[in-house]
Prior knowledge:
The chain is mainly alpha-helical.
Amino acid sequence: MISRLKEKGAGDLLKCIQCGSCTSSCIVNAVNEYFNPRRIIGSIVKFNRLPDQDPWLCSSCSICVERCPQRVNPLSVIMALRMIKYENGDAPPSRVFELIEQIKKTGLAFPLSNEAYEKRRSLGLPELEMDEESLKEVKKILSEAGF
Length: 147
Ligand code: SF4
Ligand code: SF4
């Protein structure tokens, strides 16, 4: 399992010392104890099999990457797990496809509320609208990825 994960770009899991810095800084673990990057890595190393935890819960915030003292890159492990699960026939949750449709339409992963747009304007921030050319590029990338 470790070599398969590495083929998919996962960092060196064997360098993990189970310190828990990834989990203590994980914004998803803060609201859902079930999702625990330290345990994900620990169970792969210990049992050499796919962990039960859902890798799609990760928000890809990268905080764990910055905090890991061993430079394991827990996010890369989670991304590799997604790929392997997908190859094994484990489809991503429907919210992922909704997200892709949203990106196709607007170029944004998450729609902003009117209040958020107003706040941006009051702070003098630029409008968050993707121009046609950039949106075409985004659609092309998604299409080449099979979406
Ligand atoms: S922060 Fe790094 S070394 Fe510590 S448990 Fe997480 S992956 Fe392992
Ligand atoms: S990238 Fe994923 S696992 Fe790492 S801290 Fe963020 S939500 Fe947690």
